[in-house]
Amino acid sequence: LYFQPLVDLSNDRVVGTEALARWNHPERGLLGPQHFISLLEACGLMDIFSEWVMLTCCKQAAIWREQFADATITVSFNLPASHLNNPRLVDHVQAALNSQNLPANYLAIEIVESSLIESNTIVIDNLERLRKIGMPVSIDDFGTGYSSMNYLKQFPVDCIKIDKSFCQGVPDNSRDVAICESLLSIAEQLGLKAIIEGVETEKQMQFFKARAKLIAQGYYFSKPAAPEICTEFIYTHNYPSPRCH
Length: 245
Ligand code: G
Ligand code: MN
Prior knowledge:
binds manganese (II) ion, single chain, binds guanosine-5'-monophosphate, 10 helices, 20% strand
């Protein structure tokens, strides 16, 4: 499991990380989930894999909780659609938290809009129960689904992650700028947190830094990295050494 930092642009501090699964293949190198999730599904290993992801996130969050006691570094993980439909989801999440003595706000769940298409009472119940135990839920890749506004209207979530495709053309492409500004405004008016994904350049970072209350993620800050490297990143960002005068 690799981790990519989420940086609060108002103070340059790391406030969380996203856990991203990688397969270190002996011949093909480091592979992203698009290369192995379908294989896990075909082998019936998806449940075991997800349990492992959840537990590994809790363990890492517990380590950072001890290392960075003055901050809450939240570890987000991507929840497959099928799990949002599982009536035992919250029990599984709670068991993983309990095993590491971890408060629920140290873990966060990311769901893609497509997992909300087949919304039913189980999905809504799960989202409400997660909120009740204090675990943040984000809509991932926001703006790329079929009914983004409708999801915001219907589902109790805490945060939207604005899809990286909208960040790409900022600040030169006026369409991308307009879409980003509008999505940020919607988040603000709904009282939701917003995370901008895919920040790759200094110019993009500066554009979003000028907007209040925004968290950013992307290669500009760091690629997804092994836990020790991510820890190093958090240290250097959150505890910059005093400058010499
Ligand atoms: O679907 P989701 O938003 O969870 O996907 C995250 C993926 O986006 C990861 O696989 C990660 O490697 C990739 N990613 C993270 N930051 C950037 C970035 O700045 N640019 C691009 N192109 N991809 C990124
Ligand atoms: Mn994600």
